Amino acid sequence: MSGQSAESQLRVSIVIPSYNSAVWLPSTLKSLVNALSKTSWIAEIIVVDDGSTDETTATLSGLESSLVPYSLRIVTQDNQGRFFARWEGIQAARHELVLIMDSRLLVDVNSLLHLDAAFKAGATDRVWNGHVATDPSAPLVGRFWEVPTYTFWGSYLKRPRVTMITLENFDHVPKGTGFLFLEKELFARACLEAWPVENAHLTSDDTKLLRFIAAQTPIRLDPDFSAIYRPRTTVKQFLAHSWSRGTLFVDSYAGTSRVRNLVLVALSILPPVLLALLATTIAMSAWPAVWGLLGGGVLGLLVPLLIAARRGCPIRAQLSYLTFVLPFGVTFWAGLTRGLFVHRRSFRNSTRHIETAQ
């Protein structure tokens, strides 16, 4: 800790939602404390146990002494999903600045020092979005999502640099709530704007919140404010996550424009239509049409891979995509189709514009 006066030190509450993350939490918290020790922050750590069925509580109890001088508080709730876990965490936070982070992160040792130095130098950015990379040592199945991210956000990922996220470039840069530094009050308003109407497990806990925040103030995406994410390690976990992400994808974009509404509906309808057409052409022995449909399908699957590869996506991630794209496609499509039903009311909001706060 520096000799900076307590009056001028940043006071930060770090909120970590956790569900069955006992195996990850010791290393996550160790990396966090190592990064905090480089700063002059007065910080508290709040872990929200979202109804875990593993040894989360016992694990956390055994870690308290290793976190000194930072206090650890454990908030428990029945399993309600990450949205409400974060909400409970910020309600418990004692400080006006919060760092929201995922329970699977390894915080870069100089990441918080970079943030601390920026504020000491007079930085006025209200919101910082961390640069989060996938653990390169993750199992093959854990590398899959790098191809989609490089496909859509490759211009940034190929050459990471400080980028201000606004509504104008919102869909063209990576972002997330897994490593996010901002004012507690602003995050609370974003939560209220995206408040779940029904099942919080099926409600977006990142894109909708960040879109609201970007409407209030630019979000600084900074490669020196960084962490490593450790993804799911089994095919079963990967497919369950893909199904969930399909539903959340609908909640993230339904109602934001008529064009996006049409795209979401098309993504649900097109696969079964093409399969029916393929079955019909096979039954009719129309082999040129069969091979044309199959070739078009293969090309459609390869296009994202080719784009990602050109933008510098790691080879191992490309191999993961080739290995798991078909089961991913089925589960993501099923989740997306479920999302069209669950979030059907959102499609009525196409003409509603996000209002920026003054």
UniProtKB/TrEMBL annotation:
Please give the start and end residues of each transmembrane region. 262-283, 289-309, 321-341
InterPro entries attached to this UniProt entry: Glyco_trans_2-like (IPR001173), Glycosyltransferase_2 (IPR050256), Nucleotide-diphossugar_trans (IPR029044)
**Source superkingdom:** Bacteria
Pfam families to which the protein is assigned, alphabetical? Glycos_transf_2
Tell me if Transmembrane helix is a UniProt keyword of this record. Answer: yes
The segment(s) forming the Glycosyltransferase 2-like domain are 13-125
- What UniProt keywords are attached to this protein's entry? Membrane, Transmembrane, Transmembrane helix
Question: What family classification does the UniProt entry report for this protein?
Answer: Belongs to the glycosyltransferase 2 family.
Q: What is this protein called?
A: Glycosyltransferase family 2 protein
Q: What organism does the record attribute this protein to?
A: Cryobacterium flavum
Q: What is the lineage of its organism?
A: Bacteria, Bacillati, Actinomycetota, Actinomycetes, Micrococcales
